[in-house]
Structures are given as C-alpha cells and as structure tokens.
Amino acid sequence: MFGTTLVKKESGSASASADSDEQHFERPKGLRGIYYHPITQIIMLGFVCFLCPGMFNALTGLGGGGQIGTATSANSTCATLCYVCILCIFFRTYSPPSTVNNKIGAKWTLFLGTFGYALYVGSYLAINIHSNAGNFVVGAGAVLGVTAAFLWTAQGSIMLSYATEAQKGTFIGIFWAIFNLGAVNFHSTVLGNGTYVGFLVLTLIGVIIPLLMADPNKMLRTDGTKVVTPRHPSWKSEIYNLWVAVISDPMILLLFPMFFASNYFYTWQFNDYNSALFNIRARSLNNLMYWLSQIIGSIMIGVVLDNSRFRRRVRAFAGWSILLVMVFVVHIWAYYYQRTYTRESIPDDAQKMDIYDSAYPVHVWLMIFYGLLDAMWQTTCFWLIGAMSNDSNKLAIYAGFYHSIQSAGAAGVWRMDAEGFPLMVLLPSPPSYMNIFISTWCLVAVGLVLAFPMIYSRVRDTTVLDDEAM
After folding, report:
1. Rounded to the nearest 10 degrees, what angle do helices 432-458 and 312-338 cross at?
2. Which among 117, 138, 156, 214 is placed 20 to 30 Å from 229, CA to CA?
3. What are the E-state strand segments in 76-201?
4. What is the pLDDT along the chain (470 residues), one digit of tens a residue?
5. Which residue stretches of 162-233 are H helix?
6. Cα separation of 74 and 266, whole Å?
7. H helices of 312-359, where?
8. Closest listed residue to residue 217, CA positions, set 470, 465, 463, 2
9. What are the C-alpha distances in Å from 64 to residues 85, 204, 284, 353, 469?
C-alpha cells in the first residue's frame, strides 16, 4: 500500500534520532501523490472548517448573529459551548465500547461533526422569518455543541498527526488561514433571508467535503513515515489513557489557563465592542478585517514557530514573547475605548458608529490587531500541543482537552454577557462591559505566565516517540 520501504534516512536532521526506528516508505507519484499529500489533505480540512465553523464565526463575529439584539445569539452560543466542553472529553475518553473518534476514524468523525453547523445556520434563517423562533436557535446551538465535539476532535488529530516535527507550525498556519476565510463577509444592511440561505448552502458544501478526503490509514507524511493511526481500546482503557496522559505529562496542566482564555475573549470583542459600538455595516467591515488579519497572523506566527534556522526551544520562546507583547498592546489600546461606554449608555436601538464616522478608522484597527492576536494565540496553542507528542492517539486527547477547556471558559462568559451579569462582584458596581474586558485581559496574561514554565521544561528540540507512548 505504501510502496518500497526506504532503508536509509538522511543524517543530520533535527529529528533523525527520533525517527530512526520508524519505517520510511516511498511516496506515491502523479495525481495520486498530490491527492495523498499531507498539505492537500490539510487544505481540504481547512475548507471543511472554512464552510462549517467558518460560517458560525461569521455570524458570531457580526454580534448577535447579525440580528439587532444579542441575547438570543449569546444564549445559543452558550448552549453550543457547554456541550462542546463536555463532549470533546467524552467522545475522546468514554463511549462504549470505544470512543467515536477511535471507533470510526477521524474522517467519518469529521463528517458527522459538520451536520450541526447546517442546522445552526438554518436556525438564523428561521428566526429572520419568524421572530419568535428564539428557542429554536438556542436548541440548534445545543445540537451544534454535540456535533462540534466530533468535528474538532477529528480536526485536532488530523492536523497534528499529518505533519512532521518541522512542519507543525506551517500546517497549523495553512489550516488557520483557510479556516478563517469562512468568517470573512461584508454586509451594508441588516441581514436578509437571501444572505442566510447563502450561508446555509455554503455550509452544506462543507458537509460533503469530508467524504472526499483520504483515509488517514493510507496517509504518509512528507518524510515517508506512516501516520500513526489511532488505537481502538476499550472504554476502560480510554479512561485509563486520559489519566495516564495527565499523570505521565502533568506539564499539560500549565497550558489549561491558556486554553481557557482562547475563546473567552470573543465575547468582549464581538458583543461588547463590535455589536455595542457599531451599526451593522461597520460591524460587517470590522468582521471582514478581523478574519482577514487572522489569516495574516496565523501565517506570521507559523513562520516564526517553524523557522529551521533556530532550535525549537528558541522558536517556542520567540512565539511566547510575541504573544506577550501583543496581549498588552491590544488590551491597553482597548481599555482607552472601553472606559468611555457602559452597557447602560448604549442600548440596542442607539445610533451607532458607521464606517464614515471620523472615529471609525482607529477603532477598526483595534479589531485588526485583535484578529492578529487571536490567530497567533490559537496557532501557538496547537503548536505547543504538537511539540509535546507525535502520537495521534495522545494528540487527540490533548486536542480534546484544548477544545473542552476553551469551550468551558467561553460558555460561562457568553451566558454572563447574555444576562448582563457583573463579573467581578467584589468591585463597587462597575459596568459589566468593563468587568468582562478586565477578566479577559487577566486571563490571557495569566495563561501566558503559566505557559512559560511548561515551555521551559517540556519543549525539546525534538520529540522522542519512545518517551511519549502511553
């Protein structure tokens, strides 16, 4: 199936010693070689997420799903993330007789994961036609939470296991650039039925793409090594493996605050800044610039993290330093805007900022920098996970941790924003927008501080498979 075994590996490469015991196969040629190339499959994976989670991000980024009010959308997003939080761990670590991802494989798990996105987009079409369909939107969000757990668990396993050690940052950057194209949109008026129908059609195309992807069991990395396929242990073994993954490598716990913050900041950016201050035309342009900047940010940080002229530890610290600078630049900048308004001072029906207002250009630049930070943050999280292991079974557990914990943080803050809860009850009745903003700033700062000792003690210049097996 894989062709002729290669018996000699080029010496002197960074991963030569780590891979010396692995078999190397001749890669297929011609069109078959293009189809089975890891980058081709990562591009296809990117387009699945471009058309499914990307459409979700496009609606979320508009603030309130493009509607006038934001409470229904925030509650729906909360329902989505609650289920993702639970099921990214559940479907990776407990499902008799085995986990869904291990039992049916990453390709079919990815396929099942796309259906909820079509239902979710369709629910906004429904509420645009029937204004009392808010409960349907919330229910669709809950269903999406279930299916999203399938999609993101499969996505993490595929993206990280197809790359060699030297390619992980590049592969993540390629995926993230394509994925974020899905959220790029621009509308000058309130979204109509035709727009939601267009979103729905694109999402349904995304449902089909996993059927066209290659079987991971037939994949070879670019260096000729076979992609390690997930094992199929019993549910008892899965629970044990979850425990072993933490006990054998407890440094992963230091990344949990970074994971927790990775979707937490969306609430302030999209609802408490974009939706609060701007009309629908300005919100759409902000959304366009935000996600376009994510494409640039993911490529920029990917180049840094995969620069072969420097050792991997040096690249890890360089990436961490870039994040530290970006966190404080954008949040100091955002603070000067946030202190000028409260939830009470800007009701939903207020006259809001338009793209032709004199103050708009500097405000949209903040969204651009937030987009850069978001892409760099997410890419670095995945890169750090990939630096800890090359085993796809272990990577799937780590990916489950990542999406579960990030969803837990986001679910809580979306719900609090929907209810208008003050977040810091010990403070003397400050505005709730400010509460969410300050908590966001603190979380990302703490996440970076705690990630530093993990990078220092755990990121090596190569990942040795014998040291990581569970």
Report:
1. 170
2. 117
3. none
4. 444 334 334 333 333 444 445 688 888 888 999 999 999 999 999 999 999 988 887 777 665 555 545 566 666 766 666 656 665 555 554 343 236 667 778 888 899 989 999 998 888 888 878 877 778 888 888 888 888 878 887 887 788 788 887 787 788 878 877 887 766 655 555 567 787 888 899 999 999 999 999 988 889 888 888 887 555 455 566 667 677 777 878 888 899 999 999 989 988 998 889 888 998 888 888 988 998 898 889 889 988 988 888 888 999 999 999 999 999 999 999 999 999 888 778 776 778 899 999 999 999 999 999 999 999 999 899 889 888 877 766 777 787 778 778 878 887 887 777 766 554 444 444 447 888 899 999 999 999 999 999 998 888 776 555 445 45
5. 168-181, 193-212
6. 11
7. 312-338
8. 2
9. 21, 22, 12, 17, 45
Say which amino acid occupies 463.
T
Q: Rounded to an integer, what distance in angstroms lies between the CA atom of residue 282 and that of residue 214?
A: 41
Secondary structure letter of residue 353 according to DSSP: B
In the structure encoding, which two tokens stand for residue 299, read together?
């490529």
Asked whether the beta carbons of 394 and 317 are under 8 A apart, the reply is no
Q: How many whole angstroms separate alpha carbon 75 and alpha carbon 231?
A: 37
Q: E strand or H helix at 305, and its extent? A: helix 280-305
d(CA 119, CA 162): 30
Residue 60 burial (10 A CB sphere; 0-12, 13-18, 19+): buried
Cα-flanking dihedrals φ and ψ of residue 353, to 5°? Answer: -65, 140
Rg (CA), the chain: 22
CB 1, CB 220: distance < 8 Å? no
Q: Which two tokens stand for residue 320?
A: 């961490």
Residue with tokens 């409960």: 135
Q: CA 235 from chain center: how many Å?
A: 27
The residue written with tokens 């396993």 in the block is 157
Q: Using CA atoms, how far apart are residues 433 and 343, in angstroms rounded to an integer?
A: 6
pTM value is 0.69
- Residue 419, both tokens: 């209810």
Q: Which two tokens stand for residue 400?
A: 């489950």
